[in-house]
Amino acid sequence: MKRGFVNKTILMGAFCILVLGCGRFGMAEDYEPERDYESGADEDIFKEPAYPDYLVLVNKEHPLPDGWEEGIDIIEMTNSRGNVVEIESTAYEAFLELQYELTLEGVSIDLDNAYRSVSEQEWLVDTFTEKYGEGYVEQYVAVPGYSEHHTGLALDLYLIVDGEEMYYNEELTEKPEVWEIVHNNLADYGFILRYPEGKEEITGYSYEPWHIRYVGVDAAQQMMWQGLTLEEYMGEA
């Protein structure tokens, strides 16, 4: 074999080892693909998901953020009445933990409502207006597009007392001693009482003992300790 051919063979082999070695081992763990910072063409690949923001503020002044419904994980559950209720998945896990804790204290709750679409909210407004009147609706029912229930994080509870399901508002307000136990446990599981007594001018709604909201444990405990509504906590009061 000619020496020139041997030298070429050795060089080619070394080149292949170098190239293949880079192919397998040169891609270090901290390697980042090139990003087009000028055009932002691949920006979405690196962007953190925007939702769910468990502190999202939806009230009479703040509508549901654009794209919210496409960014959350909504699941279905069936309550004790056999009704299917939709709810955001993390809020549901927290609800189950709260529900179990309350059974240990002799209180039974279940989920009457959580996620509602805009069209469902429109139906609710019409139904409650016919049943209770416009004044009641202004106090208790949100304008479609401005309801916390669109987030999937707002939960309406009902009580089961001595085996009897109590889900009408007028029935629920007759059990303040039961609601006190419920409310005392909310923050430990990431919930707040969304529309407390004495805060009507801030929240825009009358007291609703059944309406709770998932915000996460840390925020819920801070709000409870400081006696704040979500509006106050977010600096929007």
The CATH topology of the largest domain is Muramoyl-pentapeptide Carboxypeptidase, domain 2
How many helices? 11
Radius of gyration: 27 Å
Q: SS-based structural class? A: alpha+beta
> In total, how many beta strands?
7
| SSE run | HHHEEHEHHEEHHEHEHH
Task: List low-pLDDT spans.
Answer: 1-49
Structurally, how many domains make up the residues? Answer: 2
Q: Any overview of this molecule?
A:
This protein is an alpha+beta fold and 237 residues long. The protein folds into two domains: 1-47; 53-233, Muramoyl-pentapeptide Carboxypeptidase, domain 2 (2-Layer Sandwich). It has eleven helices and seven strands. It has helices at 3-25, 43-46, 68-71, 89-104, 118-132, 134-140, 169-172, 176-185, 200-203, 217-226, 230-233, and strands spanning 74-78, 84-88, 108-113, 154-161, 164-166, 191-193, 211-214. The strands form two sheets. Strands 3, 4, 5, 6 and 7 form a five-stranded antiparallel β-sheet that branches. A two-stranded antiparallel sheet has the order 1-2. A hairpin with a 5-residue loop joins β1 and β2 (84-88). α5 packs across α6 (134-140).
Concise synopsis of the structure shown:
With 237 residues, the chain is α+β, with helices and mostly antiparallel strands. The protein has helices at residues 3-25, 43-46, 68-71, 89-104, 118-132, 134-140, 169-172, 176-185, 200-203, 217-226, 230-233; strands spanning 74-78, 84-88, 108-113, 154-161, 164-166, 191-193, 211-214. The protein is globular and about 40 Å long.
